[in-house]
Design a protein that fits this description.
The protein has 255 residues and is of the alpha/beta class. The chain is built from 10 helices and 8 strands.
């Protein structure tokens, strides 16, 4: 009988929960792999890391597969702020998606950014909200429960919004650019203050709704063909509705 094979990152995973629920070709799996590979290279002790999420949507299932301290709550950013205040030495990472913005509002995100809370927020931009806007289902939806006014679609240029609210670090990548994403995750975790990393990863249903399902290699080809790395690009011009031109890079790194 052969010995059981193990992987170097098994210690960071709930291997009993594998395989994942994510569709083949979904960018979430690439983000999770990049994240755990980055943590392993950083050699941060497991007990110093906490993952906070709402448990909503496919992004919310990330915590089910990570063998790290996980907190699943309705309002992840509110909880992240409280946890960081009580545990200042911990590295707090919040995974979130469009579902969180639709269900829990954007207020918690803006509040922790305003206060410069030392957390790293990783946003999987699945294009769900953009697809709803495209079909004119959500054009009048108010993403803020407070007295904040957003122009239609403006909320989806989160790099611009969060820079105006005092973020310390802002970057955007695609699943194809996983090496650069890894560098940003490391920088975001180590950077004091609020760090924001966006990953452009349209849900496969988005492709289906646009009649361009394709296969995995086609999607990676789109990222390669349509993404332009422009570090320091003005965040005011980063709104992405279509896959025709995606500006990616590190846009903000305050001293």
């Amino acid at each position: 009988m052969g010995t059981q094979q193990t992987h170097p990152v098994d210690a960071l995973l709930h291997t009993e929960n594998l395989p994942t629920i994510w569709c083949p070709g979904c960018g979430i799996g690439i983000v999770v792999n990049t994240f755990i590979q980055t943590l392993k290279r950083m050699k941060i002790k497991k007990d110093k890391i906490v993952i906070i999420s709402s448990g909503l949507s496919c992004t919310g299932k990330i915590s089910h597969h990570l063998s790290l301290k996980n907190i699943i709550v309705e309002k992840p950013f509110d909880e992240a702020k409280k946890f960081k205040e009580k545990n200042p030495q911990s590295k707090v990472i919040v995974f979130f998606s469009d579902s969180d913005l639709m269900v829990s509002s954007i207020d918690g995100l803006l509040d922790v950014c305003d206060k410069g809370t030392d957390i790293c927020a990783i946003y999987i931009n699945s294009f769900v909200c953009s697809t709803l806007f495209f079909h004119k289902k959500f054009t009048d939806f108010n993403f803020s429960r407070k007295d904040r006014k957003f122009e239609p679609k403006a909320v989806f240029n989160l790099p611009h919004l969060l820079k105006n609210h005092g973020a310390s670090y802002i970057a955007r990548w695609t699943p194809l650019h996983c090496r650069r994403l890894s560098y940003s995750i490391k920088e975001g975790i180590l950077k004091p203050g609020f760090s924001f990393i966006e990953v452009i990863s349209p849900c496969l249903m988005y492709y289906a709704s646009r009649g361009c399902e394709g296969n995995n290699i086609d999607r990676m080809g789109n990222y390669l063909k349509n993404a332009t790395i422009e570090n320091g690009h003005p965040v005011e011009n980063l709104y992405t509705e279509e896959m025709e031109h995606i500006i990616i890079g590190k846009f903000l790194d305050r001293a």
